[in-house]
Specification:
Layout lengths: L10 E2 L7 E9 L10 E4 L5 E3 L5 E6 L5 E5 L6 E4 H4 L5 E3 L7 E5 L4 H15 L3 E14 L2 E15 L2 E15 L12 H6 L19 H7 E7 L4 E8 L8 E7 L5 E8 L15 E16 L2 E16 L14 E13 L18 H5 L6 H6 L7 H13 E4 L20 E2 L10 H4 L2 H4 L15 E2 L2 E9 L4 E9 L5 E2 L7 H23 L6 H26 L5 H15 L3 H4 L6
Parallel strand pairs: 2-8
Antiparallel strand pairs: 1-24, 2-5, 3-4, 3-6, 6-7, 9-13, 10-11, 10-19, 11-12, 12-20, 13-14, 14-15, 15-16, 16-17, 17-18, 18-19, 21-24, 22-25, 23-24
Helix pairs in contact: 10-11, 10-12
């Protein structure tokens, strides 16, 4: 596989339209402290948002008719009209506590164990659901920001479990650690997906809802906390082996036995889903803190958000590296985040692009061009003041990916994004790196078989058209770009004076096809099914055209045909590859 220079081309359809937003802060009416992750929903719809850690919310509304519902576990629900909120957007929530009296229930009392059992049965009856998902992750090492990740997914839920998350879009902030390395949580969204309230998972500590009543009595002490006359608020503590069991609290609706909220924590756990990405690294002192919040709709609950935090000590296995405390290579890592589930039974239109199934979200995100309208339309959570400072830190000391069309001006060793996909540009040309070519003949044994192989066996060039479609109320916004898929491409033939020209003409052929597709898409307002058909026909035509190109030019040895295809590119893109790459015979 060869390395190629990276550059971006973005084609965007621009539309102008107006939206009305309400933005304010949600606080405790008595203490005036912010309420993080408070649920905000538009009455009569499935639309909504949650507040950030500063208690700040922002939501798109229709002023003439909308009202917002503010709900938070342990507080009285409020319904406020948008017309009022546009004048006074801050909301004070009143606690519904009735005295915080406690009654301890001993292990042979059936009542609370029966409540947990009823809730478990309720969850077991849940149906499969689909939803949009917003995911945010931050990581600090010794209070220095090193990572921020923001993603949108299509989520597929089965009961309380997340079956799969399919990436729609994402962006990354990253900075070097003090020993000149990088710390990346490559699959945190997948790790959070392992959490299933009613089924045991080998990667996470046990949860009370995973056991029947008789087994639960042997494993957990339960205690009811009287702070709400509408729900059972139960505290659970493992009887033994705390390193493999979550402790915490659960809120269950008294009338329906539907789960409302659950807090899970396990310190110094012996069961967790984290592994160091390289040999020699190790983790210890792992602590997990997870909250799942649910929205009650009639007799049913639906997952609203998961907020989480995990702490651990990480040893990078490199004792000679410059370290944080000057004495060893242990990092104190603090990662936290939130996963918000919204617009149930509605999904994003996923980008048209084939990824390797094993690729991480990081690799996929760096394959995506920046789409300004998408990030303006999809609010997620507003950044807190601390997060804004972290982004500024990444901008000045690290790298930001998919925050703008401009490449970050980075300092230090940023090879972390090497070998990612290449976006077509008329101002940059791809070329095989000379340092790899010098030793190529000695690396591939197929090159020494005296003609017992075909030249086509030794190269594979995979170009794709990346197309993203984003339906809105009044239009369908889309953008596309041509991508050289490096992960699926290789070129292991001895290079000659035609090689780089051969590669670029092939890339340009696909770009011509993409531009022709864009011309068709601009003729009228197409629906999603029609856009899908146009895209698929474009790809079919380009695959056949590529076969013709490979067959006719014979890696550039057929001068007449090679010149014909070069002229085709010149006429359509005004690029003369044979002139650009010196030494080619025309």
């Amino acid at each position: 596989m060869k390395n190629f220079s990276i550059f971006i081309l973005l084609i965007i359809s621009k539309f102008c339209y107006s939206q009305t937003f309400v933005q304010g802060t949600i606080t405790d009416a008595k203490t005036k402290t912010a309420l993080p992750f408070c649920n905000v929903s538009i009455k009569g719809t499935s639309q909504g948002c949650i507040s950030n850690e500063d208690g700040v919310y922002k939501i798109s509304v229709k002023p003439e008719k909308d009202s917002l519902i503010f709900s938070y576990v342990g507080y009285k629900t409020q319904i406020v009209s948008v017309s009022v909120l546009l004048q006074h957007s801050n909301v004070n929530m009143e606690s519904n506590s009735i005295g915080l009296k406690e009654i301890v229930v001993v292990a042979d009392d059936d009542f609370l164990y029966g409540v947990i059992e009823q809730c478990r049965k309720k969850i077991q009856a849940w149906k499969q659901q689909t939803t949009k998902v917003y995911f945010q992750l931050e990581t600090e090492i010794q209070e220095q920001p090193v990572e921020m990740l923001e993603c949108y997914y299509n989520g597929y839920l089965n009961g309380s479990a997340i079956e799969k998350l399919l990436l729609k879009n994402g962006r990354i902030g990253l900075a070097e650690t003090k020993d000149n390395g990088f710390f990346n949580n490559l699959n945190t969204s997948k790790a959070i997906s392992y959490l299933n309230l009613i089924e045991k998972n080998e990667y996470l500590p046990s949860i009370p809802l995973q056991f029947n009543k008789s087994k639960l009595k042997k494993l957990y002490f339960l205690k009811r906390i009287f702070d709400d006359d509408n729900s059972y608020h139960i505290e659970f503590t493992p009887i033994k082996n705390k390193g493999s069991f979550f402790s915490g609290e659960i809120w269950i609706d008294e009338e329906t036995f539907s789960i409302l909220n659950i807090n899970l924590n396990c310190e110094n756990t012996v069961v967790h889903p984290f592994l160091p990405s390289h040999a020699g690294g190790s983790l210890d002192s792992v602590c997990l803190y997870v909250t799942q919040s649910y929205k009650l709709n009639g007799n049913e609950s639906s997952l609203n958000h998961i907020n989480f935090k995990y702490l651990f000590k990480f040893n990078n296995g490199q004792p000679l590296a410059r370290t944080y405390n000057g004495s060893n290579s242990d990092y104190k890592v603090n990662s936290s985040g939130v996963m918000f589930f919204y617009d149930y039974n509605k999904l994003f239109q996923l980008p048209y692009f084939d990824y390797d199934i094993n690729e991480s979200d990081y690799r996929k995100i760096t394959s995506m061009p920046y789409n300004e309208l998408f990030w303006k339309d999809n609010l997620g959570l507003l950044f807190t003041e601390k997060q804004k400072q972290s982004l500024e830190f990444f901008n000045n000391n690290g790298v930001l990916v998919n925050y703008s069309n401009k490449k970050s001006k980075v300092k230090g060793n940023y090879n972390v994004f090497q070998d990612n996909n290449i976006f077509w540009s008329d101002t940059n040309r791809i070329a095989l790196k000379k340092d790899n070519l010098d030793s190529l003949l000695h690396k591939n044994p197929l090159l020494n078989k005296n003609g017992q192989y075909l030249a086509s066996d030794l190269y594979n060039l995979n170009v794709q058209i990346f197309l993203d479609i984003n339906p809105s109320v009044d239009f369908i916004q889309h953008y596309s770009t041509t991508v050289f898929d490096i992960s699926q491409s290789y070129y292991e033939l001895p290079p000659d004076t035609n090689t780089n020209c051969f590669l670029n003409i092939y890339f340009d052929i696909w770009e011509i096809g993409r531009q022709q597709m864009e011309k068709v898409l601009s003729l009228q307002s197409w629906n999603i099914q029609q856009i899908d058909s146009i895209y698929k026909q474009t790809v079919t035509n380009l695959n056949q055209q590529s076969k013709n190109y490979f067959k006719e030019v014979q890696l550039g040895s057929n001068k007449k045909e090679f010149h014909k295809w070069n002229t085709y590119v010149l006429q359509n893109l005004n690029i003369d590859n044979q002139q650009i790459f010196a030494g080619n015979d025309k």
